[in-house]
């Protein structure tokens, strides 16, 4: 089944200045892509999101948040809710990035609650999963991915609003990268798991991105694989 590729750009905690964010948007104006053939989602910092939204959308891309609260409005200092994203017409958010899990203590259950809130409010989710180096070396890649997905599956009713981003943690920002065959094998296993746990239709339709030191040099080989539907890029 043909699936429309999707590429996400995660700015993480960069850049340091509004002027630099605007310079990025300006530089992209000379580059074009066919929005009918590929979806592009740019995820700036929370403070930059509203400032660069119009510029990103003028390129034919969409904006997304890098994270969202598991709570609604209320006394939750430092949070922003899915309702805020809806009000600002921000259609996407990343949930479950490994840096949120490892550095800020987000659990599989936290991720599932966030996914549920976004499903209820119509916010599209890039759901990040992936194993640590020691888990890869212990042969637990598929086990970890299944565990992370299993927490979220009962919360998902609108699969058209879900993209899965497989990011082997050991390859994020390290310069190391899974070979195209390694990435393809893991993506195929994720799809196989979804066929069993949800349905073959969902497995066939859901888009699965690869993230982990994707570069201009390796993206073509990765993208040639039948189960890789795009990338989530944090540094390029």
Could you explain how this protein is built, in words?
The protein has 236 residues and is of the alpha/beta class. 41% of the residues lie in helices and 16% in strands. The chain is built from ten helices and eight strands. Helix 5 crosses helix 7 and helix 7 crosses helix 8 (180-197). The longest helix has 18 residues, at 180-197.
Task: Supply the key terms.
alpha/beta, globular, 236 residues
The percent of residues in helical segments reads 40-55%
Shape: globular
- How many individual β-strands? 8
Which range does the strand content fall in? 15-25%
What integer value in Å does the Rg equal? 17 Å
Give the termini separation.
29 Å
* Total helical elements: 10
Order of secondary-structure elements: EHEHEHEHHEHHEHHEHE
What's the pLDDT, averaged over the residues? 95
Side-by-side strand order of the widest sheet: 7-6-5-4-3-2-1-8
What composes the largest sheet?
Answer: 8 strands, parallel
**What is the SS-derived class?**
alpha/beta
Uncertain parts? none
């Amino acid at each position: 089944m043909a699936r429309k590729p999707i590429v996400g750009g995660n700015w993480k905690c960069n850049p340091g200045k509004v002027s630099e964010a605007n310079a990025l948007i300006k530089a992209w104006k000379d580059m074009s892509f066919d929005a009918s053939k590929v979806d592009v989602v740019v995820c700036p910092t929370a403070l930059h999101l509203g400032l660069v939204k119009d510029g990103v959308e003028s390129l034919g891309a969409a904006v997304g948040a890098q994270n969202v609260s598991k709570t609604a409005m209320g006394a939750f200092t430092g949070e922003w809710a899915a309702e805020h994203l809806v009000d600002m017409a921000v259609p996407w958010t990343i949930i479950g990035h490994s840096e949120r899990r490892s550095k800020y203590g987000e659990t599989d259950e936290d991720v599932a609650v966030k996914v549920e809130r976004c499903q209820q409010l119509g916010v599209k989710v890039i759901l990040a999963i992936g194993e640590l180096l020691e888990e890869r070396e212990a042969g637990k890649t598929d086990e970890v991915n299944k565990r992370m997905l299993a927490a979220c599956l009962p919360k998902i009713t609108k699969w058209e609003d879900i993209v899965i981003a497989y990011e082997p943690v050991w390859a994020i920002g390290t310069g190391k990268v899974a070979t195209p065959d390694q990435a393809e094998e893991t993506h195929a296993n994720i799809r196989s798991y979804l066929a069993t746990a949800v349905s073959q239709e969902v497995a066939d339709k859901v888009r699965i991105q690869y993230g982990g030191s994707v570069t201009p040099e390796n993206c073509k080989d990765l993208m040639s694989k039948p189960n890789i539907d795009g990338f989530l890029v944090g540094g390029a």
